[in-house]
Amino acid sequence: MLDVNQGSLYPALYRLEARGLIVADEGVSEQGRRVRIYRLSSAGKKHLVQEVAGWRLFSQAVERILLPA
């Protein structure tokens, strides 16, 4: 459904990390390569709750617009 290229993904991850919304840890992939593993921070979890609430309000408004009159 979504096709996100590296040129968009990594800058977004770096911005989220700089804002303290995600935390990066070092790990090893199944292929044995070093990788960064991202997880939500406490602040990120709180921010996600707010964003989801805002998205629900927006999507409900769009649904109302699309209903037949």
Report the count of strand segments.
2
CATH homologous superfamily, by name? Winged helix-like DNA-binding domain superfamily/Winged helix DNA-binding domain
- Return the domain count: 1
CATH architecture: Orthogonal Bundle
What CATH calls the topology is: Arc Repressor Mutant, subunit A
Spatial shape: elongated
- In N-to-C order, the SSE pattern is HEEH
The termini sit apart by: 31 Å
Percent helix, as a range, is 55-70%
The proportion of residues in beta strands is: 15-25%
Structure explained in plain terms:
- The radius of gyration is 17 Å and the shape is elongated.
- It has a single domain (6-66), classed as Winged helix-like DNA-binding domain superfamily/Winged helix DNA-binding domain (Arc Repressor Mutant, subunit A, Orthogonal Bundle), CATH 1.10.10.10.
- It has a two-stranded antiparallel sheet.
- The protein has 69 residues and is of the alpha+beta class.
- It has two helices and two strands, in the order αββα.
- Helix content is 55%, strand content 20%.
Provide keyphrases for this structure.
single chain, 69 residues, alpha+beta, Arc Repressor Mutant, subunit A
Please summarize what this structure is.
This protein is α+β, with helices and mostly antiparallel strands and 69 residues long. 55% of the residues lie in helices and 20% in strands. The protein has a two-stranded antiparallel sheet with strand order 1-2.
Q: Topology, please?
A:
Elements: H1 6-18, E1 22-28, E2 34-40, H2 42-66
Antiparallel strand pairs: 1-2
